[in-house]
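[agent] plan:
  1. take the single chain provided in the ticket
  2. run structure prediction with default settings
  3. attach structure tokens to the ticket
  4. add a short note for the reviewer (M.T.)
[agent] executing step 1
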Amino acid sequence: MKIGNLELRKNPLLLAPMEDVTDPSFRLLCKKYGADLMYTEFVSADALIRSIEKTERKLKIFDQERPVGIQLYGKDIDAMVEAAKIAEQAGPELIDINYGCPVKKIATKGAGSGMLRDIPKMIEMTSKIVEAVKLPVTVKTRLGWDEDSKIIVDVAEKLQDTGIKALAIHGRTRAQMYNGEADWTLIGEVKNNPRMHIPIIGNGDITGPQKAKLYLDRYGVDALMIGRPTIGRPWIFREIKHYLETGELLELPKIPEHVDMIREHLNNSIEWLGERRGILHMRRHLAITFKGLRNFRDLKIKMLRANTAEEVHACLDEIKETYADCTSIVESL
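[agent] step 2 finished; step 3 output follows
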């Protein structure tokens, strides 16, 4: 599959952009387990053009994690164009535009999926960003604002006409947020529209290898984008690739592999953010990674209250020893 000049394997697996999740520490882990293309956390155009340090840090990309796209969001066209130029200088493989985030503070202000209520502005913004940068520009969006406005089939053609090089579609409306089941039928309609020629990337509810194969076979998308199911389970990329290649399911990893994975993630996070912030950032991953273990409550509380790297590592040592022969099945979110 090609996105502009970027060549990827057939049916590549993409790590979806997620705020407070897809920082370099997590991206490096997903790369290790087989992600073919990854995205930064959401980058606010307004904050970027005002040189807010926390936002500028999101542009950092390490060579060992490439290819990586920088995802931008905003409601002002001029700000988005300027932000795209700044992001291009950070050296990503592509610039992605966020027309999909459903969070209230973003969408109700007209950014993210809020742009689905102003298609002319969406098209104008996309066109001007494509014209402003030399890198491939891609878009991630949803089926529509709500059940009565599932407009993605028409919008996809208009976005393609602006010159974008790929389109990722989450199979829910903004009104659904992350509730209910993702509807892939319209994603399939976009992909099978004879007027569409750019890669179409499907996103939503890809919780395991069988579902990944089902969606590829049934809807014919060019790639799969995986978001929340990667939290606590970055090896989902490895699982899916193995199943697509062999038709066989990999054995679920034992708890020692979970511990080694989360320890590596913790060390990466501390190196990236410092000890205190790195540990706070990791608490979501620590909680989810060992979900399903029996009689784990007290140790979980102890681990999530740990304030130093030494304390967290001691808890991980205890988990590794206590549950050495166990397999933790992480439920999809």
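[agent] step 4 note for reviewer: Residues 299 and 315 are 7 Å apart (CA to CA).
[agent] ticket updated
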